[in-house]
Amino acid sequence: MKLQYKDNEIFYTITGTGHTKIPLVLLHGFLEDMTIWDDFKKGLGKERQIICIDLAGHGRSKDFSGSHSMQEMANIVAAVLNETGIQKVSLAGHSMGGYVGLEFLDNFPMMVKEIMLINSTPSEDTVERKKIRDRSIDIVATNKDAFISMAISNLFSAESREVFKDEIDHFKQAAFRLNIENIQQTPKAMRDRKDHTATLKKFEGGKRFIAGEDDTLIEITDIQKLAIATNSDLTILEGGHNSWMEMSEKLYKNMLFID
Fold it and tell me: Which of 47, 66, 114, 176 could cross-link with 206 by S-S, CB 3.0 to 4.6 Å?
């Protein structure tokens, strides 16, 4: 399915035959697309509808002219739900998808029953992390494919790079097709995103962190502190930043308990 949003086409899918639970929106991360959820949809869809979205500039969704923002991404999610007539959802977002989910929660709190942050954080970028984002933007301009290959490889341990060699290569090949401008604009949006720790703490619905104990981007100790500060549940899985690939079965079992 596709939605005309401003000057762009946004692609999404609705699957699932169950109706015992409210619909679940699955949001992918940076350099990813909605196909990361393909192995999850069938099982999760036995109890509910599953909405997957290619966020702007990712997957089949058209290039996004001008600057991106997490708020614009959240507005896209809202537009998809409005198009489908869905008024209440739970959210699960991986990495950047978690940022989008939190922005959606901040702007449309009455539409959210539960939120799961997968290898993600409500905290804004540190000063050092912002500098890293800026350097990545410059690298993309010089050599997009080298940046993509390095960025994706660095998400995995040496062991995982060997175990998931074919999957990682497929991940990279899909990312190579992304537009340079979008690859540059998205880190800017992540760099400039708001801190949503207070948003998450205030939210009275279900909230859970899924963290990788060897995540190279998000310190596990930081997530442990945030879980306490926001009164959120926390599940720690083996592996690194991409639990959807490295720990798919365990992640799936956790996602079954979303509301």
Answer: 114
* Rounded Cα–Cα distance for residues 181 and 257 (Å): 38
Distance between CA 251 and CA 246 in Å, rounded? 9
The Cα 233–Cα 220 span in angstroms is 14
The structure tokens listed for 12 are 């999404």
CA angle 210, 54, 137 (to 5 degrees): 80
Q: What is the CA radius of gyration of the chain?
A: 17
| Pairing outcome for strands 233-237 and 206-212 | parallel
pLDDT (tens digit per residue) in 123-174: 999 999 999 999 999 999 999 999 999 999 999 988 999 999 999 999 999 9
The residues with which 14 forms a beta bridge, in sequence order, are 51
> What is the token pair recorded at 226?
């945030």
User: How many Cβ atoms sit within 10 Å of the Cβ of residue 66?
Assistant: 10
Give the position of tokens 């599940």.
235
- Bridging pattern class, strands 233-237 and 24-27: unpaired
Which tokens sit at 183?
């690859």
Distance in angstroms (rounded) separating the CA atoms of residues 111 and 104: 9
* b (16+ CB within 10 A) / e for 225-239: ebbeebebebbebeb
Global model pTM greater than 0.85: yes
Contacts of 24 (CB under 8 A, 6+ apart): 44, 48, 49, 50, 51, 89, 90, 91, 92, 255, 258
